[in-house]
Design a protein that fits this description.
elongated, two-stranded antiparallel ribbon, mainly alpha, about 0% strand
């Protein structure tokens, strides 16, 4: 840990001619420290800090050498390491220890972007700018109050900077959403203040994926205030855009893409299932009830089935039960969904059997058109009287 910070404190004369070697080792350190446990988050944090400190020390020059300064040959490598730091979600007995790495990564993105914008903005490509803003957007919607405040602060600095950072997607729209008159005194750590603003990024195509990824983790989290305010903001936004399938389709497609990209990633999938239950139970996708042949219900059913296939994670399976019951509203997938629920009624875990029976009972009582009237009473009796 101390060695990484020592490299970051080296003066420019000692780094000249050796910069590539130093950067390579620090970039490797951001991902992992050789010979150390992968959960040694403090070491990765210090590698990020050292990487950030070296850049202003050696300076920026588009015509320089990669062994002497930040130049076209190494600027992408440094940024990619900082982006990787914002995706560090390592956990141990202390909880989410990767948070210190993510916060260091966000500070590094802000400082390096402003440094290069001031010295030689042509070094920043549109791809790098977009990914930098997307990293901050995702973190500005996640569940930890302190981290969300850091992300929002860095995001505000970049979009309002007098040194105009080049190639920021939808820069004009960002300035409208986060107007200085609104954000100057805002407490970003308070979920009731931050989510109503950051949720609006869902309507900007460049940021919708990362915004939704962050919001899902908040909606499916454990902190009551964060869950309440993030859920309310998400539902409020969706009710304003769900007039027809054409306006809802982009959101639904992003949701399915996110599900596919994080297949078997419990950190994302568990809160995603909780979010799906929230959306389906609040009639967000009811427009698809009358859209015959729309692929959303079938695609969602397939993804949830694949996610719990051969899974022994009781929390994930229990969360999927609610989604399956919600999908019974859709006639196109009703038969397939009922088959899946019958399988869960025979699951090895008693808790899964009991929860499935309870949720299916509630669903059948709520929606009396799911089963034929001739068998409905018998099914409800079996579900309520059996000791599952």
């Amino acid at each position: 840990m101390g060695f990484a910070l020592a490299l970051g404190a080296l003066p420019k004369p000692l780094l000249q001619g050796r910069l590539s070697q130093v950067l390579d080792k620090l970039v490797e350190g951001v991902k992992n420290i050789a010979g150390c446990e992968p959960k040694y988050a403090e070491a990765r944090r210090d590698a990020v800090r050292a990487l950030t400190r070296i850049c202003p020390t050696v300076g920026v020059a588009s015509s320089g050498s990669c062994d002497h300064c930040i130049c076209p040959d190494n600027v992408s490598t440094v940024f990619r390491a900082l982006f990787a730091a914002t995706r560090d979600y390592t956990t141990d007995s202390r909880g989410d220890i990767g948070v210190v790495v993510r916060e260091a990564g966000m500070s590094g993105i802000e400082q390096l972007a402003l440094l290069i914008t001031n010295k030689d903005p042509e070094l920043i490509s549109p791809e790098i700018t977009k990914e930098a803003i997307c990293c901050l957007v995702q973190q500005s919607n996640e569940k930890i109050d302190r981290t969300r405040a850091v992300a929002c602060s860095k995001l505000m600095t970049l979009i309002h900077s007098s040194l105009v950072v080049p190639h920021i997607p939808h820069h004009h729209e960002l300035l409208q959403i986060f107007h200085k008159s609104v954000t100057s005194e805002l407490n970003w750590a308070a979920p009731q203040s931050s989510f109503p603003l950051t949720i609006q990024l869902l309507r900007l195509p460049s940021y919708s994926y990362h915004t939704l990824l962050g919001v899902i983790v908040s909606v499916g989290g454990l902190t009551e205030s964060t869950v309440r305010h993030s859920s309310a903001s998400l539902l409020s936004y969706l009710k304003s855009v769900t007039g027809s399938s054409d306006t809802l389709d982009p959101f639904a497609d992003t949701l399915l893409t996110l599900f596919r990209d994080h297949h078997k990633d419990t950190r994302v999938v568990l809160p995603l299932l909780k979010t799906l239950d929230l959306l389906l139970s609040n009639a967000v996708f009811d427009v698809y009830l009358t859209s015959e042949g729309h692929p959303f219900p079938g695609s969602l059913l397939t993804l949830v089935k694949d996610e719990i296939k051969k899974s022994r994670d009781a929390k994930k399976i229990l969360a999927s039960v609610n989604v399956f019951c919600d999908l019974l509203q859709f006639p196109a997938v009703r038969r397939s969904t009922l088959i899946q629920l019958m399988l869960l009624l025979c699951h090895a875990f008693p808790k899964v059997r009991k929860t499935t029976a309870d949720q299916l009972y509630i669903t059948l009582v709520t929606y009396d058109d799911i089963l034929d009237a001739a068998v409905s009473d018998d099914v409800i009796t079996v579900l309520s009287d059996t000791l599952w």
